[in-house]
Amino acid sequence: MKIHEKYILRCIQVAKNGLGTTFPNPMVGSVVVYQEKIIGEGYTSRYGGPHAEVNAISSVANPSFLENATLYVTLEPCSHYGKTPPCADLIVKHKIPRVVIGIKDPNTKVEGRGIQKLKEAGCQVVVGILEKDCREHHIRFLTFHEKKRPFIILKWAQSLDGFMAPESKNRDSIPQPYWITNIRSRQLVHQWRSEEQAIMVGTNTVRVDNPELNVRSWHGNSPTRVVVDRKLKIEQQSHILDGSIKTLVFTEIEKTDQYLPGVDYRVIDFSKNVMAQLCDALYENNILSIIIEGGAKTLQSFIDAGLWDEARIFTGETQFAKGLKSPWISGKLRESVKLHGDTLKILRNG
């Protein structure tokens, strides 16, 4: 492995410590190398805190080494003032002579300006190291800025014979959870929730299942809850409307007297492209990633519109014979693993 690739790979590893906490900032990783030895590491803090480069530089025990060191970073250092000062300015201030960057930042506030600022200050800048790996690592951030929408993950569980649930008459007569997957798979879903910025379901899923859509079987932040409720049919006592977690409700009802406190309502036009409006609204709310957990109709709507990036499909050992058919999807198989009897397949769109 080439020396630059070695340290950019370490940057990616370090960056993953920020998974699920940096939104809407990217989870960047950075290391400082002096005489072929790492003397500082850092990753992006929780939103509003220092960026990866700042944390890496601050972790260096002897700052005098910086004037002869190389800073490695997965994404181009920022060049603008936001919640924190520009990272490029800090690099210049410490007279770090060499900066090695995984990929350029597509954010219109940066777009090469960080690189330009470093070069103008006399820094030697190398760009495009492990570019494929860095793009995969920053896939949420890149999708948001390049496609102007969140990175969309579809998730569902289906029986061995392809159903998401048994027949409704059975669900009504025997009111109990119909678990398709095992406890390990269900715990993994909560881990995923902690890693994404938002989670979404349709009206029927809320009315039938009354989900909490939070993180319970894992440590981490609960994502913003998103639901489409055209006629505001969801009962006010539902978990999703309890105000405990930030919640967005998309509706056509404009009468605010029907709105509940602590819930953010957004009016959209259901006679037009609903999926596109949802994506636009989520983009405007700086939501970089969203996991769609149901129901079948909502999932299929995203599939039919081509608005998905990754699908995570569990297949359990249960068989229903009849019931609610799972969505139909076609994509590139990225991974297939066994989880104590369950099968998890991960697809990518294109």
Topology:
Blueprint: H1 3-15, E1 29-34, E2 37-43, H2 52-58, E3 70-75, H3 87-93, E4 98-103, H4 113-120, E5 124-127, H5 131-137, H6 139-147, E6 151-158, E7 163-165, H7 168-173, H8 183-195, E8 198-202, H9 203-209, E9 224-228, E10 247-251, E11 264-267, H10 274-284, E12 289-294, H11 296-304, E13 310-315, E14 324-325, E15 332-339, E16 342-348
Parallel strand pairs: 3-4, 4-5, 6-12, 6-13, 8-9, 8-12, 9-10, 10-11
Antiparallel strand pairs: 1-2, 1-3, 7-14, 13-16, 15-16
Binding site for NADP(+): 157, 179, 205, 209, 295-301
Function: Converts 2,5-diamino-6-(ribosylamino)-4(3h)-pyrimidinone 5'-phosphate into 5-amino-6-(ribosylamino)-2,4(1h,3h)-pyrimidinedione 5'-phosphate.
Binding site for Zn(2+): 51, 78, 87
